[in-house]
Amino acid sequence: MATEVEIITCKNQIRSWSRTMRSNGHKIALVPTMGYLHQGHISLVEEAKKHANLIVVSIYINPSQFAPNEDLTRYPSDFNSDLLKLKQVGVNVIFHPENLYETNSESGQTGSSENVERESGFEPKIEIESGGSSVTVERESELSSCLEERGQLGHQTWIRVEKLEKGLCGKSRPIFFRGVATVVAKLFNVVEPDVAVFGKKDYQQWRIICRMVQDLDFSVEVIGSEIVRDADGLAMSSRNVYLSAYGRQKALSINRCLSKAKSSIQSGEISCKQLRDSVMQEICEAGGRIDYAEIILGKAPLSCPPNPVSSK
Ligand code: AMP
């Protein structure tokens, strides 16, 4: 049965809703998403309902976790369809802000990076002494996301979960987890939930959020929820819409070889190298390109796996 859902777009309004509800004895769960919802997201809502009686789903495509060469401008979205799905599963609020970041620099202007460099004394080139004479060299370029590319220079504060963000997906996406941790911290400060639910499909992300909550004393219980797959075995993802039928066939090799590796481990196989080699071989044979394949212990620090292997 479809239920009424309140749509809130303003930070102050959701904070005040949340405070009123908590003072009336309610418990609030937040499910952060970027929209284009599928059954994987809905399963997080169902999990959230086990832990709280009021559910907020945020829908916000976060520019600070996209590198300039990634797919921010074409990331899929369909708010009306999301609304229908959330009405059907039954949530109380959709938090759907247009922008979560400050847009002005401290001087009150939306400046170009040149202005800010001048205002802050930052110079992109520096002079260094070399063999008695001075030479001018370029500073190492700052890591930047689509947020900085847009010139949204009002935002300067970043959360970095320093060790966990470096390995695995962090190797090829160096600004991704900085953006995720920062936007989740902002959502926690704005929505003030008691509980937040994340998918273990994005395992490193889930671990990073747990660590951030622990290290920075957020008063939020973080729940990890299991992966939901389509009938053919592919993990559901908003980005699956980019896949052609042929691409999807190739992608199925990922779950196939990971399941085989899991059965091998369960039946006593302990050679990480062999397991990793067969995973990589099956994906390559299916026509896939591998960013990384690593085997780690569940509670090991994700940044330092015993034998990292990667091939492009
Ligand atoms: P996204 O909208 O892709 O940012 O994902 C929002 C949340 O949904 C994250 O916590 C994801 O880990 C989770 N999620 C996405 N796909 C799945 C899935 N197939 N199974 C379980 N959780 C998922």
What keywords describe this structure?
globular; binds adenosine monophosphate; 6-stranded parallel sheet; 10 helices; two-stranded antiparallel ribbon; 8 strands; 312 residues; alpha/beta
Gist of the model:
With 312 residues, the protein is an alpha/beta fold. Helices cover 37% and strands 13% of the residues. It has a six-stranded parallel beta sheet, sandwiched between helices. It has a two-stranded antiparallel ribbon with strand order 5-6.
Summarize the topology.
Layout: E1 6-8, H1 11-23, E2 28-33, H2 39-49, E3 54-59, H3 79-89, E4 93-95, H4 113-120, E5 125-130, E6 133-138, H5 146-149, H6 169-172, H7 176-191, E7 195-199, H8 203-215, E8 221-225, H9 245-266, H10 272-285
Parallel strand pairs: 1-4, 2-3, 2-7, 3-4, 7-8
Antiparallel strand pairs: 5-6
Helix pairs in contact: 7-8, 9-10
Residues 33-34, 40-41, 43-44, 198-199, 201-202, 225, 227-228, 235-238 line the site of adenosine monophosphate (AMP).
Approximately how much beta-strand content do the residues carry? 5-15%
What compounds sit in this structure?
A: adenosine monophosphate
The coarse overall form would be globular
The Rg value, from CA coordinates, equals 22 Å
- Average pLDDT, rounded to a whole number, is 87
Strand arrangement in the largest pleated sheet:
1-4-3-2-7-8
Assembly type of the shown chains? single chain
The total count of helices amounts to 10
Give the H and E element order: EHEHEHEHEEHHHEHEHH
Distance between the termini: 48 Å
Q: Give a quick account of the main beta sheet: strands, pairing sense, barrel closure.
A: 6 strands, parallel
Report low-confidence residues grouped into runs of 5 or more: 107-124, 303-312
Total strand segments: 8
Helix/strand/pairing category: alpha/beta
Helix-residue proportion: 25-40%
